[in-house]
Design brief:
The structure is a single chain. Helices cover 27% and strands 16% of the residues. The protein is of the alpha/beta class. Helix 2 links the parallel strand 2 and strand 3. Helix 1 packs across helix 5.
Length: 217
């Protein structure tokens, strides 16, 4: 299965989300690899310390045996292969405008994911049936702090149990289940029931991890 994170607008957390999504999938027992369709090549900087491979996908050759490929697509870069599902992060007004325009040009099913406390816009009528929405992830100082150093927040002991870190884990778990269901791929994703807070409600305020909707990362 191939999932691509994409928005033409930079600075909205696309790479941070893709990297954490890879780590989350591995903790659930999936064989996962990243792919950076991005001239900055930031995804390998996140995944290297986690021992998750970041490979170049070539549609002309048979790829290694992974359950999941996660592609980080930035700016106007074209992914090397069409994904099964697109995830479009939206964290501010500009990202919302770009996300709607981008969705008009993509063929595979799409999931809009609110990030940094951004409320998602309404899905236009002409995109109904092609776009699903996921819950919005609140702004988190802990995630921003980890991302500034190209680190995974769950791998930093003093940040791993902050409200934002736990909420991110739950939200990405739900996103993975949603993407698998949308794609029809036969991946088995263990349920998170009883382990993590539900993303339907925002996490409590944390002294290290503020959940204010402040554009950052």
């Amino acid at each position: 299965m191939i999932i691509a994170f994409h928005n033409h607008k930079g600075g909205i957390g696309t790479t941070t989300l893709a990297a954490h999504f890879c780590v989350l999938a591995r903790t659930l027992g999936l064989r996962v690899a990243g792919c950076a369709a991005d001239f900055k090549q930031d995804l390998p900087r996140f995944l290297g310390p986690e021992n998750i491979p970041c490979i170049d996908i070539d549609p002309q050759r048979e790829e290694p045996d992974y359950d999941l490929f996660v592609i980080d697509v930035q700016s106007n870069t074209e992914p090397p292969i069409d994904p099964d599902v697109w995830v479009i992060p939206i964290s501010d007004h500009g990202a919302a405008i770009n996300g709607v325009a981008l969705s008009d040009s993509l063929r595979a099913p799409m999931i809009w994911l609110g990030n940094k406390g951004r409320k998602l816009p309404d899905v236009p009528a002409y995109l109904q049936g092609a776009v699903e929405t996921a819950g919005s992830i609140p702004y988190s100082r802990a995630i921003r702090c980890a991302g500034d150093d190209y680190r995974i927040v769950w791998s930093i002991p003093e940040l791993a149990r902050t409200a934002g870190a736990l909420y991110l884990h739950a939200a990405l778990h739900d996103l993975l289940e949603q993407a698998v269901a949308l794609s029809g791929e036969p991946l088995v994703v263990p349920s998170r029931k009883g382990k993590w807070p539900k993303p339907s409600a925002p996490p409590p305020q944390d002294p290290v991890d503020s959940d204010q909707a402040v554009p950052a990362n």
